[in-house]
Specification:
The complex is a heteropentamer of chains A (about 290), B (about 350), C (about 290), D (about 240) and E (about 250).
Chain A (H helix, E strand, L loop, with lengths): L4 H26 L7 H17 L4 H23 L4 H21 L1 H4 L12 E2 L2 E2 L3 H24 L1 H11 L1 H6 L4 H27 L9 H14 L4 H19 L8 H19 L12
Antiparallel strand pairs in A: 1-2
Chain C lengths: L1 H31 L6 H18 L4 H29 L4 H23 L15 E3 L2 E3 L1 H23 L1 H11 L1 H6 L4 H26 L6 H16 L4 H21 L5 H15 L15
Antiparallel strand pairs in C: 1-2
Chain D lengths: L1 E10 L2 E11 L4 E5 L6 H8 L4 E9 L2 E2 L5 H6 L2 E4 L11 H8 L6 H14 L1 H5 L10 H14 L4 E5 L7 H16 L3 E5 L3 H7 L2 E6 L2 E6 L7 H8 L4
Parallel strand pairs in D: 3-8, 3-9, 6-7, 7-8
Antiparallel strand pairs in D: 1-2, 1-4, 4-5, 9-10
Helix pairs in contact in D: 3-6, 4-6
The complex binds adenosine-5'-triphosphate (ATP) (2 copies) and magnesium ion (2 copies).
Chain lengths: ~290, ~350, ~290, ~240, ~250
């Protein structure tokens, strides 16, 4: 083993979050949908996959269904919020996150509510069970690579340009004969699909989920990643994921009296975040601005 | 990240690393810090030359708990861990500990799921069922028949509420109202209004975030609920005493109290009464220390020793059953003259 | 019956707390157009200021209040001048400022925890006692004071935004910063004022919240989210609307759980937000914005 | 009144103005014409420090204003009618106008100014309390012009004031401009309608590719270069 | 008739922006709309292109009732338009603008994933030359001067496949020399069989170019006819050109 299990763990998280961040960037940076409901897709994916796998469904099928189920919600969300943009859309989608959180918490018969779901099985594919962290790392790396590649192709394709055009000026795009609603829901469904996939990867990696894993702090984390990385930059999201997941880990090595350990780390982390923004005010690789 | 607080120097030979993990930021930070202080007290006292202690913050989050456990297991090579507190965090970290044969002793996770979390997973606090049954019986014995429940909508609250409901109704009582609130929120007026409206004889409150506890008890007074107030051990935090007269007479069901000896030691060290879970953490640490003193050098050996040992700890008699759970005694604690007073049975 | 009446009162009390937070927040938003999430920490910092000055240092209460409001205002100004303005000068867009503000919030939350500990703090200026009961409705004197104060702030903000030059210029800056300077408005000065006044209001909110509830380092986030939701429901681009929206939110939450299990309290709040945005995106009182000028 | 000396300016990497010298005398109307993208707007933006000025000097009434902040320059008595987003779309028409009068502290003068604008553009009066974004393109232009007039400037810089106005209003606008000069206001006007501009102005600068290529009075109307290349057939 | 609008009404709150307008655009002809500021011309454009829903009235395009269609559906049928307040994609380059305008397959996600940037370089160059926009193709929409924006807007409207071209003040802010060449372009397009509907305040431009003119005032069509007729119509002179002194009563 070249890297320690801890490093492996961090890398696994990084790869899971790369999928999550890139997929959010697809909606937010490329399509201009200031979607704060992404964390809900992530949660929906995690729960769907966990519950199905516990019922005995093969892992890959559970994962795909988790993605699809999340993207159904993506479709619904776009349908409901079609008329909103900018901060208003942000608020509505934030509301959606909270509502999904509430449902996860209160639909106890299905989700076990606050008790969470323990003992989620590790993935097993074609009879091979992904058991150790090293194996899991390879597995998420694979899924991550495929997912990012697909999303990369999408944004680089003419279709991706349409998404960017929609971000910049939807009215103009419509009079050019493009169905912007269609674009938005396609983008959101793809985005939600991959969020669902990463939720599934998370659930089966940690093997325990509860609603708090899919709430504000997660939302802030992925939003920060996308924005620090730069809107409409996949490279940015990848780099920022690594930076933002890793920085707190470096801060662990600080030699601090245990009484202030947690808060000092967090405060430092926040300070570093602000410093990065001061240095790169459009994010690390960002070029575009949202209105 | 080595915590150097008065811990013995690393002698270099066969050092055994022990971890402490818990929430030092986030909503449950108060309890996290108390547990850490309690555990450190034990390690400092034992002053073992071959034990090194490290501390990791899990921010009241499950993902952080998994990360902290991974880090301690593979970087620091810990053999045993005191923590986590929140059941969800414990459950997220447990599979990692189990897989790496690292002992984990939670001083505070009461979820029934923890029993099944694995061979290496122990706790020095009895599960929810214990406290729930005790609370229901106590209230029933005291002659109450109409109970209102107010609990935080999380693992702890739900777990406890379910058991109390079952037990209290089976004892012939009636649940006249059941209300929840979001952990950390500070506005429960309408829940309390509904409870007041249901006219219970007694209200049982489950709370594990101090800010909510304080807000809640204040509003109980303001709204003018006449029923007697009982509550879970989470209410046993110093801050609620500042509410003065209005918390007088509140009864808290608590795991058997810390020994006077521990209380004194804790007061000497930290200048305040031990908050909830400090004694349990002290005992968790003590159990690990005893195993090591007994010659255990790795997780597996510590685990084996734990299943065999039996001692009178700060929080009561400790003997782990086959699930790694302890039998706990419970007592009633009442607020009298601005202090927590343990009632004699 | 009294259950309903009491719940309405509870809703108003809750709403008035949200309103206190929302008022300053929406004032800042309506000038600067970005979500200043760190407003929550201004409120919390003000609360701790009261705790420090009054409870720990024994400063007379009224002096404490005055100092707190002034320092809050300056705290807000400092955030603008030291963080937001430099970012804006470098061309950071509003989403970047949003993230920066979350950073500020996190930073100060932890600074407060380091300074004061993670435990709950009480001010203890007013003794906790059963409220005044009138016609089956119970509420404390302080709650009445808070209600009245939010009402006064509502009137004052309305007058301020609609009738004063500064209020109008704030709206102008929010609408188009570049154009504002082209017509001779010093948009930095205007933003200064919006942060001063808005954060001063956060100071007022902090004092009252500290008295009515209690202090913990993390309380800012929750307050902020609810205050913000109230602001959106009322019309975020219309400052007095945010106060009305906050009351409505408080009412909806408290009345909603009369019917639904109380676990759905937050869900009710956010569903309401969701519905409002769908059917009345500019809020109850908010004016329709120039959507076509994109 | 206004002297621009050897101005180099642009946007980031892009250099637009390459050594521009322009002056506006007291009580003078100066026109600035040139093809699209020549840098006309950039000249005005440079005065206000909205573009990136790399070198050169701008003086106003013998005061060096290079590098002053935009609103400070405006307060010296200059009014600027820009191109593009010209109004506060979410403020009412009246509020937009009143913003022009921000620095005028005598209520009578403000009232009088308002009346004057409303008389000139009756459309604005009828839409006094409408939000500005509801105005038609031409009405927007009127509103921006009106706001400039409300400012009671000593120097008026206008970037294509006639844009989108109906022929009737265009004609009136040029009359107004002539009238303003009588009130002692100096003006720098960017115009596409080169013929009208030259006729109206005391002096005209022709800007091409960031340089002044021609300068002169009304006689340049006869200049063959302008006639053929710039004015186009009919003008 | 390629386009015909019947009895269109549209009011915003109390303002009757369009107050019973009917008119037709003949196939393969250039039709102009003129009228004073605020007379409802742009609103009419918005109604036709479906950005605004009329309160009542019907619209037919190519003999088909299109009243119920969505904006993009109508655009797909072959209506192309520009905006008075130019609308561009600020973060996209000129090339990308034109690629989007020209492509009709880019909305298909799956068939697109493995395709790179497309777009006929030759055609893009042509359009750029046609409108006289002299800027590198990788300039962002944000970095154009006002006139250049107008030209780009015109370019994408022309590049988009269409049969009816609707132009809202296409030469406002455009340099006179280019106005003449744009006039030629429009004639050229027209001779290739395109129908054009345009709003313009520049009388020289309009009168020279169009076959038929509608004059709007206060939301109504107050006159229509050939350019020569209109130029001598006292109503038009009064309402629009400000020429007639006698104040003839119109309609
Ligand atoms: N969204 C809107 N809300 C309210 N009123 C509007 C709106 N859009 C246009 N109007 C009004 O409708 C009338 C017609 O406007 P329109 O933009 O169609 O005029 P126009 O003929 O294009 O004028 P111009 O030549 O100045 O561009 C105007 O009085 C305008 O103020
Ligand atoms: N914000 C900007 N960023 C980058 N380049 C710009 C910007 N604004 C203008 N330019 C470029 O600078 C040059 C000059 O622009 P300017 O706006 O001064 O032209 P103009 O003479 O006013 O033209 P028009 O008659 O079209 O308004 C143009 O080539 C344009 O592409
Ligand atoms: Mg220009
Ligand atoms: Mg128009």
């Amino acid at each position: 083993m070249i890297i320690s299990a801890y490093q492996t763990h961090i890398f696994i998280l990084i790869f899971i979050y790369i999928i999550l961040a890139v997929s959010l960037n697809l909606a937010l940076g490329y399509t201009g949908l200031l979607n704060l409901g992404h964390v809900a897709f992530y949660g929906i994916g995690a729960y769907t996959s966990a519950l199905l796998a516990i019922e005995g469904m093969p892992y890959l099928a559970a994962m795909i269904i988790a993605g699809l189920f999340a993207s159904v919600f993506g479709y619904l969300l776009v349908t409901a919020t079609d008329r909103l943009k900018g901060d208003y859309l942000a608020m509505a989608t934030l509301g959606f996150s909270f509502v999904v959180y509430s449902l996860l918490l209160n639909l106890r018969e299905i989700t076990r509510g606050a008790m969470g779901i323990p003992g989620i099985p590790k993935p097993s594919i074609l009879g091979l069970t992904v058991r150790t962290n090293d194996q899991y790392l390879i597995f998420v790396l694979l899924i991550c690579a495929i997912s990012v590649f697909i999303m990369y192709r999408i944004v680089k394709s003419p279709f991706g340009k349409l998404l960017e055009a929609n971000r910049d000026n939807a009215v103009c795009l419509r009079v050019l004969g493009k169905n912007t609603f269609g674009l938005k829901y396609k983008a959101m469904m793809i985005s939600a699909f991959f969020a669902g996939i990463s939720g599934s990867l998370y659930a089966h990696y940690i093997t325990f989920i509860d609603p708090t894993s899919f709430y504000i702090s997660e939302l802030i984390l992925i939003l920060t990643i996308v924005i620090v990385g730069g809107l409409a930059s996949i490279k940015g999201s990848i780099v920022a994921t690594a930076v933002i997941i890793y920085v707190p880990e470096i801060l662990r090595t600080l030699d601090l009296p245990s009484s202030v350990l947690g808060p000092v780390r967090q405060a430092l982390y926040a300070a570093i975040l602000i410093a990065i923004l001061m240095l790169r005010p459009r994010g690390i690789f960002g070029k575009v601005d949202l209105e | 990240c080595t915590d150097t607080e008065e811990v013995t120097e690393d002698t270099g030979e066969d050092t055994i690393t022990v971890g402490i993990m818990g929430p030092y930021t986030g909503g449950a930070a108060v309890y996290g810090n108390a547990a850490k202080d309690g555990a450190m007290l034990a390690f400092n006292e034992a002053n073992l030359s071959n034990v090194e202690v490290i501390v990791e913050d899990t921010k009241s989050e499950t993902k952080e708990a998994a990360t902290a456990m991974n880090k301690m297991v593979s970087v620091d090579n810990v053999q045993a861990v005191v923590g986590d507190l929140i059941s969800a965090a414990t459950l997220a970290a447990a599979p990692i500990a189990e897989q790496n044969q690292v002992v984990m002793i939670s001083p505070a996770s009461t979820s029934t799921d923890v029993s099944d979390a694995g061979d290496y997973i122990f706790r020095t606090i009895p599960g929810d069922d214990g406290q729930g049954i005790f609370a229901a019986q106590t209230m029933s014995d005291a002659g109450y028949t109409k109970l209102a429940l107010l609990y935080t909508n999380d693992q702890y609250g739900n777990g406890l509420a379910t058991i109390i409901t079952e037990e209290f109704t089976s004892l012939g009582g009636e649940i006249v109202a059941e209300e929840t609130y979001e952990a950390g929120s500070s506005d429960m007026r309408t829940q309390l209004t509904k409870i007041k409206d249901a006219n219970p004889e007694v209200v049982y409150i489950v709370s594990n975030t101090p800010d909510s506890s304080v807000a809640l008890l204040r509003q109980v007074t303001e709204i003018g609920i006449e029923a007697d107030i009982y509550g879970s051990e989470g209410l046993k935090v110093g801050s609620i005493l500042e509410l003065g007269d209005s918390v007088e007479g509140i009864t808290i069901t608590s795991v058997s109290p810390e020994s006077e000896e521990f209380k004194q030691k804790y007061m000497d060290e930290y200048g305040e009464e031990p908050p909830a879970f400090a004694a349990q953490a002290y005992d968790a640490a003590t159990a690990i220390i005893m195993a090591i003193e007994d010659g255990a050098t790795n997780g597996e050996e510590i685990k084996d020793k734990l299943y065999e040992m039996e001692f009178d700890g700060a929080s009561g008699h400790i003997k782990f059953d086959e699930n790694g759970d302890v039998e706990g005694g419970y007592v009633l604690v009442e607020v009298q003259d601005g202090a927590f007073v343990t009632l004699e049975e | 019956m009294s259950l309903l009446a009491q719940s309405i009162i509870n809703g108003l009390i809750t709403g008035s707390i949200y309103a206190l937070v929302a008022a300053g927040y929406s004032l800042i938003y309506s000038t600067n157009n970005f979500m200043h999430f760190a407003h929550g920490i201004s409120v919390v910092a003000a609360g701790y200021m009261v705790y420090w000055l009054f409870t720990l240092a024994g400063t007379p209460f009224y002096v404490t209040c005055i100092i707190t409001v002034i320092l809050s205002a300056l705290f807000g100004l400092a955030m603008y001048r030291l963080i937001y303005l430099p970012l804006q000068r470098k061309g950071a867009s509003n989403v970047i400022l949003l993230i920066a503000s979350i950073g500020i919030l996190t930073f100060f939350q932890n600074v407060i925890q380091i300074a004061f500990g993670s435990g709950v703090k009480l001010i203890g200026y007013i003794e906790v006692a059963k409220g005044i009961t009138f016609a089956g409705i119970t509420m404390t004197l302080l709650q009445i004071v808070i209600l009245v104060i939010s009402f006064i702030i509502f009137i004052m903000l309305y007058q301020f935004m609609q009738r004063t030059k500064l209020g109008r210029n704030m709206r102008a800056v929010s609408n188009n910063k570049e154009l504002a300077s082209i017509v001779g408005i010093n948009h930095i000065r205007v933003s200064d004022f919006s942060f001063l006044i808005g954060s001063g209001l956060a100071g007022v909110a902090g004092i009252l919240v500290a008295l009515e509830q209690n202090l913990s380092p993390l309380m800012g986030t929750n307050l902020m989210i609810k205050g913000f939701t109230g602001a959106v429901i009322g019309g975020i681009n219309y400052v007095p609307g945010s106060i009305v929206g906050s009351f409505l939110l408080g009412l909806a939450e408290n009345l909603g759980i009369l019917v639904l299990p109380s676990g759905y309290k937050d869900a009710i709040a956010f569903s309401m937000l969701f519905l409002f945005l769908l059917f009345k995106p500019n809020g109850i009182l908010g004016k329709k914005e120039g959507r076509f000028d994109k | 009144m206004l002297v621009i000396e050897d101005l180099y300016s642009g946007y980031g990497e892009l250099k637009v103005l390459k050594g521009v010298n322009i002056s506006v005398g007291k009580n003078e109307i100066v026109a600035l014409i040139g093809p699209n993208g020549a840098g006309k707007s950039t000249v005005i933006k440079s005065i206000f420090n909205i573009s990136d000025v790399s070198s050169g000097k701008v003086t106003f009434r013998d005061q060096d204003i290079t590098g002053l902040r935009t609103h400070e320059i405006i307060k010296l008595g200059i009014s600027y009618l820009n191109q593009g987003k010209i109004n506060f779309s979410n403020l009412t028409v009246k509020e937009n106008l009143m913003i022009g009068a921000d620095q005028i502290f005598e209520p009578e003068l403000v009232e009088e100014g308002l009346e004057r604008v409303y008389n000139k553009f009756p459309d604005l009066r009828s839409k006094e309390n409408e939000l500005a974004y509801t105005l038609s393109g031409g009405q927007q232009q009127m509103l921006a012009l009106g706001r400039s007039l409300m400012q009671r400037p000593v120097l008026l810089l206008m970037d294509e004031p006639s844009l989108g106005l109906s022929p009737k209003l265009q004609k009136e606008l040029f009359e107004t401009i002539a009238g303003l000069r009588e009130e002692g206001i100096s003006m720098l006007i960017v115009e596409q309608n080169a013929k009208k501009a030259i006729e109206l102005a005391d002096r005209t600068y022709l800007l091409e590719d960031g340089k002044v290529v021609l300068e002169g009075g009304k006689e340049i109307l006869e200049n063959e270069a302008i006639k053929n290349v710039y004015l186009g057939g009919r003008y | 008739m390629i386009l015909s609008c019947k009895d269109i009404y549209k009011s915003f709150g109390g303002i009757k922006a369009i107050d019973g307008c009917s008119f037709t655009v003949a196939e393969k002809k250039i039709t102009g709309i003129i009228g004073p500021n605020g007379s409802g011309k742009t609103t009419m454009f918005n109604v036709i292109s479906k950005l605004i829903k009329p309160d009542s009235g019907t619209i037919e395009f190519k003999g088909q009732d299109v009243t119920g269609l969505k904006d993009y559906e109508l655009a797909k049928m072959g209506v192309s338009r520009t905006f008075q307040d130019v609308k561009l994609f600020q973060n996209l380059t000129i090339r990308e603008h034109l690629q989007i305008a020209m492509s009709d397959t880019d909305e298909k996600l799956l068939s697109n994933i493995f395709r790179g940037k497309e777009g006929d370089a030759q055609k893009i160059k042509e359009v750029m030359e046609l409108v006289g926009l002299d800027k590198p193709l990788d300039t962002y929409g944000n970095d154009l001067s006002y006139g250049q924006r107008k030209l780009l807007d015109l370019a994408i409207a022309i590049a988009k496949p269409h049969t009816l071209l609707m132009l809202d003040e296409p030469v406002a802010g455009v340099n006179p020399r280019l106005r003449d060449s744009i006039k030629d372009i429009l004639r050229e397009l027209n001779s290739r069989g395109e129908s054009i509907l345009l709003i313009e305040h520049d009388m020289n431009f309009v009168m020279d170019l169009v076959d038929h003119i509608f004059v709007m005032d206060a939301g109504k069509v107050i006159a229509e006819g050939a350019p020569e007729e209109i130029q001598n119509n006292p109503c038009v002179l009064e309402a629009y050109l400000g020429g007639s002194e006698e104040g003839t009563k119109c309609l």
